[in-house]
Amino acid sequence: MIIPIVVNGMELNFILDTGVSRTILFSLNQIDSLNLKDFKRIKIRGLGANKPVHALLSKNNEFQLKNLIGLQQNLLFILDSDFDLSAKMGLTIHGIIGYDLFKDFIVEINYSQKKITFHKHTKRLTRKVMKMEKIPLTFYNKKPYVQVEIQLKKEQDPFLVKLLIDSGGSDGIWLFEGSHPLIISPEHYFDDYLGEGLSGIIRGKRSKIHRIFMGDFSLKNPTVSYPDSTAIMVARKQVDRNGSIGGMVLNRFKVFLDYKNSSMYLKKGRNFKVPFNYNMSGIELIHSGLVLVKEKGSSLGAGINLESTNRAANSLQLEYNYTFAFKPTYRIFSIRKNSPADLAGLREGDLLLAINGRAAYHYKMDEIVHLFYHKPNRKFKIKVNRNGVELVCSFKLRKVI
C-alpha cells in the first residue's frame, strides 16, 4: 500500500504500515531540499541483527495529503542504514507512515481493488461496519494488536495468541518461538529470507500451520514464519506479544480499521479462498538500475498503394521505427540453499536477462515474484549474465512444506 504525501513541499512515496508508530524517512538524496524542522541526532534500533542506526528526529514538519494530515508532524530520518525498500520493491519508496494517518479516521483497505479510503466517523458508517465481523484491538506504543486463535496441527486444540496487525509485512503470520509454551520450532520447515528491517536482514524458518481463526472466519493452512531471535530483539520487548499478522492474511479481506474505537472489521474479499503459497524458486531479487533498450516497431512504407493495378509488383514495403527507453534490470541478491534455483546453478549477483524467453525488463518486480509463487512443477528457463558471461539455467518450482 503506497501513497504519495507532500512533506515540506516535496512529494514522496510512503508505505502505509500499521506496524510503525512513527513516520520514517530513508533513501532520500535531496535531504537539503526537504528542509527538515527542529531536528536532533539519535540512535534507534529496528528489526534485524545489526547494530542500532543513526537517525534525525525532526519536529514540526508540514505533511499534505488532501485534508487528512497537516502541520506539526514528527518524523525520523534514517542516516546510515542499508535498509533499501526501493531496490527490494522495484519502485521508489521514500518512507513508511502508520499511526499518523490511522488515528483520526476509519480506514478502509480494499486489497482486491488496490484502494484505500479514509472515512470520517459518522453514524451511517458505524451502522455499515457493525454488520461485519468485529475484532477488538488493543494498542501498545501506538501499534494495533489482536487476540486470535491458531491451531498448529489438526490433532491439537486451538489456543489464543496476541499478534501485531502489520499491514506492511508481506508474510502471512510470524510466530515468536518461546513466547507461548506451544510455540516451538516446527517439525517441517525450511530456512528462508523473511525480509529486512532497519537493523538488517531477517531470516528464519518458514512453515505452515493448520488454521487461524479471526472471529468467525477460519483460514486453512496459512504460511507461518519463525524469525531468528537475534533479529527480533526489539519486537520481543513486549513480553505478551506472540508475533504478527501480515499482508498475506489481511489481503483475503476487506479491512476497516477504527483506531478511535479500538476495533477492526472484516468482510470476505475476493482472495478469501486462494491457497497460501510461498516463493518456491528460492530466488530473491533486487532492482539493479535501468538499461537503455532499443525497441522496434513497424509501419507501412510511405506512399504504398495497396490497391495498385501493378499486379506484377506483388510486394509490400515495410519501414521500421525504433524507439529507445530506459527499462528496469533485476539482480539476484539471495538464493535459498538447496532450492530449485540453487540446484539449477543460479547464484547471488546474477543479472536476469530473460524468463522463459521473454526479456526480464518487460516485467515489473512484483510480476516476477508472483511467477515464483505459482503452482508446483511450473517450468522456468532463466537466462542470466554472470560476470559478462551469459548462462541459461532451468528448474521446476518445488513444494517444500
Q: How would you portray this structure in words?
A:
The protein is mainly beta and 401 residues long. The protein has 3 domains: 2-102, Cathepsin D, subunit A, domain 1, CATH 2.40.70; 122-268, Acid Proteases (Cathepsin D, subunit A, domain 1); 283-289 and 328-396, Pdz3 Domain, CATH 2.30.42.10. Helix content is 9%, strand content 45%. The protein contains 7 helices and 29 strands. The protein has helices spanning 31-34, 85-89, 99-102, 123-129, 247-250, 340-344, 365-372, and strands at residues 2-7, 10-16, 24-25, 39-44, 53-61, 63-64, 73-78, 95-97, 106-110, 115-119, 133-136, 138-140, 143-151, 159-165, 173-175, 190-197, 200-208, 211-214, 217-220, 223-227, 243-245, 253-258, 263-268, 283-300, 318-335, 351-355, 358-359, 379-386, 389-396. Strands 12, 13, 14, 15, 16, 17, 18, 19, 20 and 21 form a 10-stranded mixed sheet that branches. An 8-stranded mixed sheet has the order 4-5-7-3-8-2-1-6. Strand 22 and strand 23 form a beta hairpin. It is globular, with a radius of gyration of 25 Å. Residues 302-312 have low confidence and may be disordered.
